[in-house]
Amino acid sequence: ERHKACSGSSVRSSSPRALGSAFSSVLAVTAVVVQAVAWLHLWEAAGLTTPATAFTATPTDAGIRATCSEIILRQEVLKDGFHRDLLIKVKFGESIEDLQTCRLLIKQYIPTGLFVDPYELASLRERNITEAVMVSEDFNIEAPNYLSKESEVLIYARQDSQCIDCFQAFLPVHYRYHRPHSKDGETFIVINNPDLLMYCDQEFPILKCWAQSQVAAPCALKNKDICQWNNMKYKSVYKNVTLQVPVGLTIHTSLVCSVTLLITILCSTLILVAVFKYGHFSL
């Protein structure tokens, strides 16, 4: 009985503490719930995704992004002197067999310091060396850089025979004449990265990964039909290509003009002497 009494008194004495602890737990849980509801209202009022949605969407986005292969573009200029070749190479991040159903179009912007000869392009097309066409109609290949405008060229890239997931394009470019400088005997021409357009005959995962917008352009070089090409996002090996061009100095103007005039007079005199000496004239 004494044992029962002791145990009963122990239960009765601990009941107030138990009640107080339970009451504190209820208050704590209530505070957490109120705080969570307040945060949810704040997120919704700000127009943001709820935390639960954000946490569940992250693994899905990461999985989609992981399947996207990266597109690498490389621009380089070949040859020396005033006549160069612009070579553009495009490589996809992994070997994709479906690329055989796709076409790649490069929209290259030609700065005022350079020009592309449309007659040369026509000759290269006839020999099946490159597939490129001028977009700009009002174009003068004889104008100096300070009287010319930026032009555009469409280049239909070809698949590289040595790389299943690579394309390449070739374009001959030429320097324009520049104004002479007073001090520095050189100037620089910056060739910006082109627009990369892609068109596939069927749905292709890479289009959903990196397509930014749609651009209307001819479906093929010998076809007048217009296709909606996907403007692709890519990573460039070089930010821009910079060319160094030698120019004349203004302090040499009088010397160059004098020498040019003397040579012109001398050559004209020699031509006239040869005509009168060896020419046959009949009345």
UniProtKB/TrEMBL annotation:
Decide whether keyword Transport is in the record: no
The organism encoding this protein is: Mustela putorius furo (European domestic ferret)
Its taxonomic placement starts with:
Eukaryota, Metazoa, Chordata, Craniata, Vertebrata
Keyword Cell cycle on entry? no
Q: What PANTHER family does the entry give?
A: PHOSPHATIDYLINOSITOL-GLYCAN BIOSYNTHESIS CLASS X PROTEIN
Membrane topology annotation: Single-pass membrane protein
User: Which family does the record claim for this protein?
Assistant: Belongs to the PIGX family.
InterPro entries assigned = PIG-X/PBN1, PIGX
Q: What does this protein do?
A: Stabilizing subunit of the glycosylphosphatidylinositol-mannosyltransferase I complex which catalyzes the transfer of the first mannose, via an alpha-1,4 bond from a dolichol-phosphate-mannose (Dol-P-Man) to the glucosaminyl acyl phosphatidylinositol (GlcN-(acyl)PI) intermediate to generate alpha-D-Man-(1->4)-alpha-D-GlcN-(1->6)-(1-radyl,2-acyl-sn-glycero-3-phospho)-2-acyl-inositol and participates in the sixth step of the glycosylphosphatidylinositol-anchor biosynthesis. Probably acts by stabilizing the mannosyltransferase PIGM.
Q: Kindly list any coiled-coil regions of this protein.
A: none
**Name the record gives this protein:** Phosphatidylinositol-glycan biosynthesis class X protein
